Each structure stands twice: as C-alpha cells, then as structure tokens.
Amino acid sequence: MAILMAFNSPELEIIGMTTIFGNVSTPLATTNALYLCELGGLHIPVAEGSSEPLKGGVPRIADFVHGADGFGNINVVSTVKKSSQKSEQAACDFLIQKVADNPGEITIVALGPLTNVALAIQKDPSFGSNIDELIVLGGAFFASGNVTPAAEANIFGDPEAADLVFTAGINTQVIGINLTTQVILNEEDLLEIKNSNSKHGDYLYDMTRFYRSWHLSSDGLDGIFLHDPTCMAAVLNSSLFTYRTGVVRVETQGLCTGLTVLDMGLKEWVGDNPWVRKPAIKVGWTVNTTEVKKLVKDLLMRP
C-alpha cells in the first residue's frame, strides 16, 4: 500500500527501491518489489539488501502476518516478467552511490529493518551527512510493541542497525506504532477501495484478507493498522504530524531487545549515560488520523 501510494504521488521522484527481510526473506522481497514496479508501471532499479541482520544470524520473518508470499497468499509473484531483473548493485552500494551523486537531495524512506542504511554508514563516512532526510517506520515510543511488549517489529529485526542509524547524526524522523496503530481501515474502507475506479482496487482488497484475519486473531481488531501507509503519509505531508526532538537509543540485548527510548530533554543529566552527547532525531508524537486516512484512501483509489 505504501509503495503504491508513492507511485501514485506525482510530487515524488522515485529513483529506486532497496529490499530487506522482515515481512518475507530478502530475496522474496526483491521479487515482490519487482512485481510492484510492474504493477505500477514504473521502471526503476531494485537493489537487493542484506539477507541477515548487522550482527548476523537468522532474520525474523513475519509470514504469519503477511502470508508466505508477503501479499496475503494471493500468489501473484509468479507473474513477474522474466525481463524484470534486480540491480547488479547491493542495496548499501546503491544507496551510497545515489546519495553521493545527489548530495543533499535524497530522502530515504525506510519501511523495514535498518540494516542496509547501517551498512552504508559503516562503508561510507560521508553517507549520512549527504542525505537530505531519512524517514523511518519503526519503534514503539511509550507504547506497547507488536513483537514483544517492549519492541516493534522493524527495530526488533535489527536493533544494532537501528541504534547505529539513530545515533549517526542523520536528519531523521521516526514514525512509530504509537501513531500507526491509531490509523485504521475497516471493512467498509477496504470495500470502498475495492469498488473504486482504481486499477489496483481488487488486488489491494484481496491482499488484505490474510492481514485482516491476523489482526482479528492477534489484536481483536476488525480492521487493519496502516503502519507503512502512515509513514508514507509523513513523507507526503508532514504537517499531519507533530514531533518531539531528542536522542533515541535502542536496547540491543536482553529482555527488552528492540526497545526504543527517547530522551525528551526534561532533565539535565549528571555524568554520562548512553544518551549524553548523541545527536537528536525527530520522533512522531501525534497524528491527524482523519486526514492521514483520507490521504491514504485518495491515493490508493486514483485511477
């Protein structure tokens, strides 16, 4: 949904996509990204990212939320044309090159774990300073997580990468599930998209069946949370959000792995702690749910 929103937004110049594990494995995410490019009629590079977190190990895959194919088990990935090929560059190299070629002009929208961005920071010390803005879907600021009570899925997927990125001095704003769980499409909304003049209405409706069933069993919610679309709404119209600015650190081990902790600047600390003298970022604090939902639906229902 978020990617098709971007495709339907003429004010955005989309210069590429990178892929990462999370909803599915990284290779399958690449296939899915190529399919979405074909669906949206957009010919852009798709660069495959890391297949494992920064520290290595088996990545967490949420196929129980999104289906084995990442599209709610509607089995559309087999229709990707054989002419569609991923970029020869790895995702971190693709990011480094595009930012170097366009210093101060690139916005990166990170909808999954931050492994590729962290690898780019490690490989090129100038990378972070040349990004115009990094907009991240992740974290659960002063709210319950969706993987554990402490952690949100994208941050939990690679907490080391998230902590590195959040403290790298990049102009960053983070949209957490404390906001995205406030923006919900119910069955009436989904049927409105299905029955609209959009060429993707049927596809979007079918794709959400599995996701909606999971929300009902997991959260008791008769609808779906708009995590990624809400983050994309922040790219398109940041005035629909308010923000708090402060240092964010991520717990990387133990019971609260993936916990995002914002120092709101309410106290002058005595001595050192892991938040002292680290660069601040912007954290989404409130969201205009009515207007975000309207923006999402308007873009997804464009013919």
TrEMBL record:
GO cellular component: cytosol
Domain Inosine/uridine-preferring nucleoside hydrolase, residue spans: 1-293
Assigned keywords, A-Z: Glycosidase, Hydrolase
InterPro entries for the chain: Inosine/uridine_hydrolase_dom, IUNH, Ribo_hydro-like
Keyword Membrane recorded: no
Superkingdom of this protein's organism: Eukaryota
GO molecular function: purine nucleosidase activity
Record keyword Membrane present: no
Protein family according to the UniProt entry: Belongs to the IUNH family.
Name under which the protein is recorded: Inosine/uridine-preferring nucleoside hydrolase domain-containing protein
Organism for this UniProt entry: Marchantia polymorpha subsp. ruderalis
